[in-house]
Amino acid sequence: MNYEQIHIPVLLKETLDILGIKGDGIYVDATVGPGGHSAEILMRIDSGRLVGIDRDQDVLAYARERFGNDRVHLEKGCLSRLKEVLLSLNIREVDGVLFDLGVSMTQLKELKRGFSFLSETRLDMRMDTAQKLTAWDVVNRYPEKDIERVLREYGEEPFARRLAKAIVTHRRKHSSINTCAELANFVARVYGRRGKRHPATRTFQAVRIEVNNEIDELAKGLASALDMLKVGGRLCVISYHSLEDRMVKNFMRDGGREGLLRVLTKKPVAPAYDEIRKNPSSRSAKLRGGEKI
Ligand SMILES: C[S@@+](CC[C@H](N)C(=O)[O-])C[C@H]1O[C@@H](n2cnc3c(N)ncnc32)[C@H](O)[C@@H]1O
């Protein structure tokens, strides 16, 4: 798979403008993915360095092939462990950190990874395939109250209770829900109607967030990034759903109140019409930036 052709980096120019890359700076792309943002950062540094982190072994292997040079360190890890990764490389402070959250198109399109509605493969959704918990476990092993919590908290699903009850009843009376397509069709049947978006969109988001512990990851990652930035260093976060964006917004607001950072984006930066037209999966992106003071 040619990852560069499949995943188009989102809000690229806007992100680089906020990061304000310095040629001798040290930058961290903590969600390096296929390397769309990293490639542009690298073009702007000369004596500086780039640390790329991702929890997905496959995508990291691709990035390793793409950027085989001594200014780039690529590490398998979680963004919550950003500080440990940097300290292990003997880096004590950095000029900029980027989080481009969620999954890449390469992960969504690789049907065997079990992220997509269309996939006839087993529910999976793990970004790190070495991890134990999968989407199948959440859907087929979690008690009803936990499924309801996941759907309500992470999917902001208005029918969380009804869906959780229906899933558990189905499990008891019939069989487990094994594939992504089965789950998508099951949710559509419970909904009984279709709007603009597939009715299982919120369910898939919620289960993916649970499987990958994304909320906790983000909370720890933000704190870790601020800790490792030098004064004047910049933090950029691109998020794709309101739950994440709220966390980033509150983190920046609180940091501003406590005199730890200056918020650089009073309102989140969203993709222009032209970007959404060329890359529809960018439509929900929101970029926020801050500078450590
Ligand atoms: C939207 S993609 C990044 C795309 C990249 N900026 C580009 O333009 O090519 C997000 C990437 O972050 C990784 N990721 C998501 N959450 C992570 C976490 N908590 N720790 C480490 N990597 C994470 C995913 O595996 C995925 O490869």
Helical fraction equals 40-55%
| Small molecules (ligands, ions, cofactors) in the structure | S-adenosylmethionine
Number of helical regions: 14
Looking at the overall shape, the CATH architecture of the largest domain is 3-Layer(aba) Sandwich
Kindly, what is the distance between the CA atoms of the first and last residues, rounded to a whole number of angstroms?
A: 42 Å
Number of strands: 7
Helices and strands, in order, run as: HHEHEHEHEHHHHHHHEHEHE
CATH top-level class of the largest domain: Alpha Beta
In the predicted model, the low-confidence regions spanning at least 5 consecutive residues are none
Structural class: alpha/beta
How many separate domains? 2
CATH H-level superfamily of the largest domain: Vaccinia Virus protein VP39
